[in-house]
Design a protein that fits this description.
10 helices
Length: 300
């Protein structure tokens, strides 16, 4: 009996070890995963399901403060301009101190950021996601606090500039978060509209023109007492969306200069529906962003 029990325990141990080893990442199964917060759009292109939130930006600020300090240029240059609310009607002025940091708005889209700040966040996000992938796969050693020169970046990982690497064999691919291009935005919108139209035709019982129904769902022309909705707000209709608020709520930066897309709570619904591009020259209370992500192969 004891021998049988011993053999059974040994079998379980071997099974556990084999299962554990089989879960180790390879370059092939890595690129089949969707990085956090994203969903597959097409091919190798992934897209954030929602706009970037105040909570996400708060995590970014916390990391910068933790590693560089609250008086550092890295931290101070990444603070959103909350004074953008003071440029609006006085009913918005309390948002100057409420909107970014109050828990009630944590799931709302971050605003008051510049395109340059959005691009720096995207690079930081790429590094942090790659770092956690490598930590979980036991390829690098986790440490709560590092010296500034030892902070993880994708470039340092591939150029062997880190002393805390465990696994010598490198993963071939890394996640690259960035702003979408206008061409990508056009494809995203066409696909999403096509899906929404199809679902609408199959599920609507009280039939009315698609344009009229769509206009009624866009988060725009919002009265001052409502302002913005959480990022994962969905249409009140019967169909579901994979990517939320592609039109309305907040306008979103793209890679091209001085352009945002999608319109916002500050714009008219008709304008949003008729034209997808808007001019943006500086941070404001109605422009945020979302990332696209690609698995890129490292090339020296």
């Amino acid at each position: 009996m004891k021998n049988s029990l011993l053999l059974f325990c040994l079998f379980i141990l071997i099974l556990a070890v084999s299962c554990s080893s089989s879960k180790r990442l390879t370059s092939k199964n890595l690129i089949q995963k969707s990085p956090p917060g994203t969903a597959l759009f097409e091919g190798n292109l992934l897209l954030d399901e929602t706009e970037l939130t105040n909570l996400s930006w708060g995590e970014y600020l916390f990391w910068l403060n933790h590693n560089y300090g609250s008086n550092s240029s890295e931290y101070l240059s990444s603070l959103p301009d909350t004074n953008v609310w003071l440029n609006l009607d006085s009913c918005y002025h309390e948002m100057n101190w409420l909107y970014l940091r109050h828990p009630a708005y944590s799931d709302h889209p971050v605003v008051g950021v510049s395109k340059e700040q959005a691009k720096k966040y995207s690079k930081w996000r790429s590094d942090r996601v790659m770092e956690i992938i490598l930590v979980r796969d036991e390829r690098i050693i986790y440490q709560h606090k590092r010296e500034i020169e030892d902070l993880f970046t994708i470039e340092k990982y591939y150029t062997d500039s880190l002393e805390y690497i465990i696994e010598d064999e490198k993963l071939e691919y890394y996640p690259e978060y960035r702003l979408p291009t206008l061409a990508e935005r056009e494809r995203i919108l066409q696909k999403q509209d096509s899906i929404a139209r199809s679902d609408y035709k199959q599920t609507r019982k009280d039939w009315k023109p698609w344009e009229e129904y769509y206009l009624s769902q866009i988060r725009a022309d919002i009265p001052s007492e409502i302002i913005l909705n959480p990022t994962a707000w969905v249409f009140s209709g019967d169909y579901l969306s994979e990517f939320y608020n592609l039109r309305g709520n907040v306008s979103e930066f793209v890679e091209e200069d001085s352009i945002s897309v999608g319109g916002s709570w500050h714009d008219s619904k008709i304008r949003i529906f008729e034209c997808d591009t808007f001019h943006v020259s500086k941070p404001n209370a109605w422009t945020g962003f979302r990332n696209v992500c690609e698995w890129k192969k490292w090339t020296p």
